[in-house]
Amino acid sequence: MRLFRKPPRIRRPLQIDQRGLPIPHVDLSLHDTAPCRLRDHYYASLQDNLLYMSYTHESGPRPPPRAVRLRFDPNDPYSKNRVNSPVGGDRLGKTPAPPTTPENVVKLDRIVLHTMLKEAISNRSVLLNAIASFRAISGETSNGGGRHSSEGVQIVKGKKSVSGWVRPGVPIGVKVELKGPQMYNFIATLSEFVLPRLREFPGIVLPPSSSNMQTPSGVAGVVSFGLPPEALGLFPQIEVNLEAYPKIHGMHIHFITNAQGQGAQNKARALVSGFQIPFSRK
Fold this sequence. Notes:
Elements: E1 15-16, E2 22-23, H1 37-54, E3 108-116, H2 127-138, E4 154-157, E5 171-178, H3 181-194, E6 204-206, E7 222-227, H4 229-232, H5 236-239, E8 251-257, H6 264-273, E9 279-281
Parallel strand pairs: 6-9
Antiparallel strand pairs: 1-2, 3-5, 3-8, 4-5, 7-8
């Protein structure tokens, strides 16, 4: 008695890609194999708390925005080629926040890790250590798990010439973007293993309470901070095989949210603090 059927006959050979690997006939994608604890925490409790903390009641419809008055008449031929900026300067920092609804509660879009190595200008092989460490702590590879949106660890090149050391097109660093479960897993590792063991880290430094929040960075909804080189060795993926990384480096971490308009910075900080990331004020 035969328990299994014979495998189907291959009618045509699989195509081979540039790396010499076979291309399957169907699209393969890797889905979540385990529940994401921090993502469930956000949708179960943190989302409702953020809506309560950031809700602003509006009794009626908003008035139409004020018309932008330019400095020069656009129909004047004498000012046709001038830089015609609005009167009063750029009003990006005074952009009002969208109405508060359950659909636009602040949430985390992605996390960007990046580092810059000055030694890479003269020796590009220095970037190999940074690429390997970022792949280890993020778990991201190009099109990994069938996700075509995943670009993996990317090499950052200079965009403009800086006298002395940077030239356009010269590799100077690496970066990686985290989305989905990898993003929440990185936050869990950061808040549970790295920051508690990092010496002299009181938290993300906040600006003074009297600082002006009507700036482009105040309405961006991005929380950024840096970690010293010794923090890289505290990640479990690096600590288990620290001898494989001859030189450790620091990094910058950017929490990018969907918050916009006035008060976006405070909403983003409240969201990040809900994931057990500490803050401190000088």
